[in-house]
Design brief:
Rossmann fold, 10 strands
Length: 235
């Protein structure tokens, strides 16, 4: 199975099981999904239905057990661990629901981490990080440690970190969960603008119905399966 040239993410019959024997839990039960270049796809569904597992497989953080998953033309099953890390470091930005900021680093230093991993000198990386922080309305907090930031500010730092190395795929797990409505709208305006780059796509896991209208398509999940893919609700 080969993805079409304009398909960034191509999944066929993807499965993922946690544990073995009587303790086995099948988190993904044959996922079929295609995400196009320039698209913002949302994954919605009840807690525990497999959304975070799916985006972790797509981002190369988790292995899948069965099926086929090609991301940006690369098949994870054909990569060794080092190739996968390099691919993810260059091409994937991930916004974790728990933020995963390093407590001893400033906001700018946290955002600069993907750049430094890819070989950008520290001073240049921090300078570029400060510029991205300004885009998420945190230009005045570049020197703040995570403990000095509110939950919403930490979430915006995490989003800036996912954007800073200009990845072709950005995967977000509940990016507006800690934000008030107005801040969430500004962040989604920014993410929507990023998705309009013809070579980039975004996948967003969310329970926040207020942002459904930003999607190009919405994949509804339940019990480890995608039940249907629908257009966003009208205005």
């Amino acid at each position: 199975m080969v993805a079409q040239p304009n398909i960034s993410v191509f999944c066929r019959s993807v499965t993922k099981t946690y544990g073995t024997g009587n303790a086995a839990v099948q988190a993904l039960r044959g996922i079929d999904l295609e995400v196009r270049e320039g698209e913002l796809m949302m994954l919605v569904g009840p807690s525990g239905c497999g959304k975070t597992t799916l985006i972790s497989v797509i981002a190369g953080i988790l292995d899948h057990d069965g099926g086929h998953c090609t991301v940006l033309g690369q098949n994870y099953a054909e990569m060794d661990p080092h190739e996968r890390v390099r691919h993810r470091g260059r091409n994937v930005g991930f916004v974790f629901q728990a933020f995963n900021l390093i407590p001893t680093l400033t906001a700018a230093e946290n955002v600069a981490v993907p750049l430094m991993i890819n070989g950008t000198p520290r001073r240049e990386a921090v300078r570029r990080a400060a510029r991205i922080l300004d885009r998420v309305d945190l230009g005045g907090r570049v020197h703040s440690l995570p403990a000095q930031l509110s939950g919403g500010q930490q979430q915006r730092v995490a989003i800036a970190r996912a954007m800073v190395h200009d990845p072709r795929l950005i995967v977000c797990d509940e990016p507006t969960s800690a934000l008030d409505h107005e801040t969430g709208r500004r962040i989604m305006d920014l993410l929507r603008g990023i998705a309009m780059n013809e070579r980039r796509c975004l996948i967003i896991v969310t329970h926040d119905a207020r942002i459904f209208g930003y999607a190009d398509r919405i994949a509804k999940m339940d019990d480890g399966r995608i039940e249907e893919i629908v257009p966003p609700p009208g205005p």
